[in-house]
């Protein structure tokens, strides 16, 4: 255990490792920040300290015990892409899971955790899902509206995962693995401003209906704060 991690634990502060699997488009970083910064802002809490490991660039932690909890970000990559860091990340995921350390996966993170633990990931037959999406949470008995931007999704959930959230187009949208792992297809960290700017940059391939749904994000009643609270509680050991 590192000296810094020992001090954090003595102060009852949780050290969270962000496993960054992509970078935001360069044209948007100056205005919105990089993907790790999205989470640092949205999860800001005096009880949480964040360290970023840009696994997409080959930067990995020395040990799963370098953090009290782990978060895997979204990415434009597919989990099927042949990059060395993807296979290495899958092995790290299995180590984190076996060590029973809290782990959160978002979009690509949701998909690669499922693949690493025995599930399957493929492209949705309905094409791209973008903008605000309603997810029915069976565990919470409520509907949550979260911004999404994906084409791949978990087509077969791992046997050890419990499906706790679905949308009209994505059956395995929120998966829970025991008490330590929770993953989401949607993006609670993404803001309407960011997705609007992303639409201008990367929305040429989207249908007109999909483009209109992205623009709805500014007026949608989003549940991002509820999901952020759920993630914090997972990291702080309150679930």
TrEMBL record:
<dbReference type="InterPro" id="IPR044992">
    <property type="entry name" value="ChyE-like"/>
</dbReference>
<feature type="domain" description="Glutamine amidotransferase">
    <location>
        <begin position="67"/>
        <end position="192"/>
    </location>
</feature>
<dbReference type="Pfam" id="PF00117">
    <property type="entry name" value="GATase"/>
</dbReference>
<dbReference type="InterPro" id="IPR029062">
    <property type="entry name" value="Class_I_gatase-like"/>
</dbReference>
<protein>
    <submittedName>
        <fullName>Glutamine amidotransferase</fullName>
    </submittedName>
</protein>
<keyword id="KW-0315">Glutamine amidotransferase</keyword>
<dbReference type="InterPro" id="IPR017926">
    <property type="entry name" value="GATASE"/>
</dbReference>
């Amino acid at each position: 255990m590192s000296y810094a991690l020992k001090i954090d634990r003595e102060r009852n502060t949780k050290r969270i490792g962000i496993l960054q699997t992509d970078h935001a488009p360069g044209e948007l970083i100056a205005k919105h920040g990089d993907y790790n910064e999205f989470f640092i802002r949205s999860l800001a809490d005096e009880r949480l300290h964040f360290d970023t490991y840009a696994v997409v660039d080959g930067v990995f932690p020395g040990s799963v015990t370098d953090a009290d909890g782990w978060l895997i970000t979204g990415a434009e990559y597919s989990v099927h892409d042949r990059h060395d860091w993807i296979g290495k990340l899958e092995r790290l995921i299995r180590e984190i899971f076996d060590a029973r350390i809290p782990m959160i996966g978002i979009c690509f993170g949701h998909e690669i955790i499922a693949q690493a633990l025995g599930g399957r990931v493929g492209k949705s037959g309905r094409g791209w899902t973008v903008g605000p999406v309603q997810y029915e949470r069976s565990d919470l008995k409520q509907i949550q509206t979260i911004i999404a931007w994906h084409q791949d999704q978990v087509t077969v959930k791992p046997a050890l995962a419990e499906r706790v959230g679905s949308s009209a187009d994505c059956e395995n949208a929120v998966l829970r693995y025991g008490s330590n792992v929770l993953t989401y297809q949607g993006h609670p960290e993404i803001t309407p401003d960011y997705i609007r700017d992303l639409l201008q940059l990367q929305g040429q391939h989207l249908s007109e209906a999909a483009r209109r749904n992205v623009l709805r994000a500014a007026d949608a009643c989003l549940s991002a704060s509820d999901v952020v609270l759920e993630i914090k509680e997972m990291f702080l050991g309150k679930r």
